[in-house]
Amino acid sequence: MSSHRPTGRHHASAGTTLQSLSVARSLGHGLFYAVMAVVVLVLVAIGCINIAERDRPTYWGTFTETNTTCDGFGRSRNCDSVGVWRSDDGTMAFTDIALDGTADPGENVRASYRPGGAMGDDSNYIVHEPFFIPGVEYWLPWVLALVCGASAWRQHRAWSSPTNARDGD
């Protein structure tokens, strides 16, 4: 009867593989934390801008779609409505302006225009359909930032849990 013992070379290979997996896992965790931190910071910045600019005037009017441009296929298909917007009081009118929302060709929809500021519609050349929930632009970025931060913290705790510890970590 002969007993088979693993050679030193085989052991070194297994150790190197575990070490490589540990490094890859650490890099993946670091990338996850970096992405989540950027997402949270962007959401907080959007929330701050929305609150700081809440007193900017909003002009309401009617958007009429004249053109739709679509990119992609299937689920990744993205369509942009472009058309004419006229303020209710008739003092402003824009052609070839984008709609943040949807409209069928020739359809009239209510849309708002907010010039000036960091996210001003004048620099983005866009009008917006009303939000389905009034004031959502003021609290939604904060809620999403909290959810992302809590998710990152929960994932950190799961990865740091002794029950999830692996050999070589």
UniProtKB/TrEMBL annotation:
The chain crosses the membrane at residues 31-52. This is DUF3592 domain-containing protein. It comes from the Bacteria. Keywords: Membrane, Transmembrane, Transmembrane helix. It comes from Dermacoccus abyssi. The lineage of its organism: Bacteria, Bacillati, Actinomycetota, Actinomycetes, Micrococcales.
